[in-house]
Specification:
seven-stranded parallel beta sheet; alpha/beta; eight-stranded mixed beta sheet; binds coenzyme A; Glutaconate Coenzyme A-transferase
């Protein structure tokens, strides 16, 4: 990041001097550089397309980012010599890179990423970011994200910004001054969108069970995937809910409009929805624009378990790919295949359970089975996690597990009791198989709960 100091008098000239084309700007990236993208919707598609088009100029450029809705073209095996992907969170565009040999995983809690940047555990040469046009004082806005991008822009040696007039102007730690940018490319494009997931009967049943544990006046964290929207749809008759969450999607908007989410009983940041990033549709991004009800803060603050715990009646709701008989939660890998990332799941599970009023709870909610395209039915409740899978939330932290068949509380239960409780919320088609596994695992006859 440039250390220049611009006054409000001269930033316009500074802006003009830094203005360039995407093709020129990406020449600032050199072979073997470590490049970080702005997180999620702050990923500057225009710059990335130009970087990929310029691939012949690079050897061994390391790319790192967390959630991405982009194409992930730099992970195409044909660019193996040009780019490698050191991912923190994987998605559709990057998931196959490890199998192709040009991807790898950096295990890090999202909340620690800015701290690692400040301590030099992870160093970035170039940060590519999408921002709003500058305001009258020369400050551009990150609009939909503060998470790690706020710190990445301050830690990277070079910051290249794509200025997009569709980026909203949001309040919080979202500002960067033109003087702190090294190159500026004006390129308008629609912001990337994530459509609300389909919510069917299974998700609605899960949502109803979650809602039954949530008291009026609670503060919610909502994870990523199909379940959060279903939970929100089940909360229409609740009152005075608040949000302190790593992310929000469109699902919160109906409840804000209906006055259910008003943040009036929050014990930290009363009256405000506090998040690190937004991922949804234009409707959500419009909501973010100059809205004092919304505050974006970096992830090392929002996801800090000690900060989360300051919210009375804190409820965290996250999802999982697999839960074993001991209550170990796998949320980011399918066997050895990296599917996503840890995100803030563990921090919110811990923060909620330590809420200062003693009324916080953490919920892992998931359908009891998944059905693959070829019709194979896979139970998400298993005796043992898949070979090579990584535990996300461990058996010491886990509390409520919910499927469409009910609620199983883990805290306070022995391993046998946990397994019995989990079998009671498994899909009926796998109960016989699971009870046999119970008998082999615990050397005790299985008696249903
Ligand atoms: N074995 C094999 N495949 C499985 C599986 C299992 N046990 N469970 C799910 N899958 C497959 C599904 O079939 C689906 O495959 P498809 O893409 O081919 O259709 C895919 O995995 C995704 O499953 P789904 O249940 O639709 O996931 P989701 O979109 O609801 O997301 C998580 C669920 C767990 C992946 C997501 O919540 C996550 O990444 N969590 C980790 C981070 C986190 O919790 N952050 C919280 C703070 S934001």
């Amino acid at each position: 990041m440039s250390n220049a100091v611009a006054t409000p008098m001269n930033w316009k000239e500074d802006y003009q001097n830094k203005l360039t084309t995407a093709e020129e700007a990406v020449k600032l990236i050199k072979s073997h550089d470590h490049v970080i993208f702005g997180h999620c919707i702050c990923e500057p598609e225009g710059l990335i397309d130009a970087m990929v088009a310029n691939h012949d100029a690079y050897r061994g450029v390391h790319i790192t980012h967390m959630v991405s809705l982009g194409k992930g073209e730099y992970t195409n095996p044909k660019y193996k010599d040009n780019f490698t992907f050191d991912g923190i969170f994987f998605g559709a565009g990057t998931r196959n890179s490890i199998a192709h040999g040009n991807g790898d995983v950096i295990p890090v809690y999202f909340s620690e990423l800015p701290i690692w940047m400040r301590r030099g555990i992870l160093n970035f040469d170039v940060c590519l970011v999408m921002v709003s046009p500058p305001d009258q004082w020369g400050y551009c806005n990150l609009g939909v994200e503060s998470g790690y991008t706020f710190q990445a822009m301050r830690s990277a040696k070079t910051v290249i910004a794509q200025v997009n007039s569709n980026m909203p102007f949001a309040y919080g730690d979202t500002h960067i001054h033109v003087s702190q940018l090294d190159a500026i490319v004006e390129m308008d494009m629609p912001l990337m969108e994530s459509q609300p997931p389909a919510v069917g009967d299974v998700e609605m049943a899960i949502g109803e069970y979650c809602a039954s544990l949530i008291e009026d006046g609670s503060t919610l964290q909502l994870g990523i995937g199909a379940i959060p929207d279903a939970v929100l749809a089940s909360l229409k008759n609740h009152k005075h809910l608040g949000i302190h969450s790593e992310m929000i999607a469109d699902g919160v908007l109906d409840l804000v409009e209906a006055g259910v989410i008003d943040c009036s009983e929050k014990t930290l940041h009363k009256g405000q929805i506090v998040v690190t990033f937004l991922m949804g549709t234009k409707r959500l991004y419009d909501f973010a624009d100059r809205n004092p009800m919304l505050m974006l803060r970096p992830v090392d603050y929002v996801n800090d378990p000690t900060v989360i715990a300051k919210n009375n009646k804190m409820v965290s709701i996250n999802s999982a790919l697999q839960v074993d008989f001991m209550g170990q939660v796998v949320a980011a890998s399918i066997g050895t295949k990296q599917f996503s990332g840890v995100g803030g799941q563990v921090d919110f599970v811990r923060g909620a359970s330590r809420a200062e009023d003693g009324k916080g709870i953490s919920i892992i909610a998931m359908p009891s089975i998944t059905v693959k395209k070829d019709g194979t039915v896979i139970s998400k409740i298993v005796p043992y996690i898949d070979n090579g899978a990584a535990v996300t939330t461990n058996r010491y932290d886990v509390d409520y597990i919910i499927t469409e068949y009910g609620i199983a509380r883990m805290k306070g239960k022995t391993l046998r009791e946990r397994a019995r409780a989990l079998i009671s919320i498994a899909h009926p088609s796998v109960v016989d198989e699971l009870s046999k596994a119970f008998e082999e695992r615990f050397n005790t006859p299985y008696v249903g709960d």
